[in-house]
Amino acid sequence: MQTEAHYQGAPILDVDPFSTEFLTDPYPFHEQLREAGPVVWIPKYKVWAMARYEEVRHVLDDWETFCSSAGGGLSNFNQEKPWRPPSIILEADPPMHNRTRGVLAPLLNRAALNKLREGFDEKAKLLVDSALARQEVDGVKDIAEVFPLQVFPDAVGLQKEGRENLLPYANMAFNAFGPRNELFEEAFKEAEKVTDWIMNQCRREALSEDGFGAQIYAAADAGEISEQEAGMLVRSLLTAGLDTTMYGITSALYSFASFPEQWSLIRENPALLRPAFEEVVRFQSPVQTFFRTTTCKTQVAGVPIDADQKVLLFLGAANRDPRRWEAPDTFDVRRRAVGHVGFGHGIHVCVGQMVARLEAESVLTELVKRVERIELNGEPVRRLNNTLRGLSSLPLKLYAAD
Ligand code: 4IA
Question: Could you tell me the CATH number of the domain that includes residue 310?
Answer without folding.
Answer: 1.10.630.10
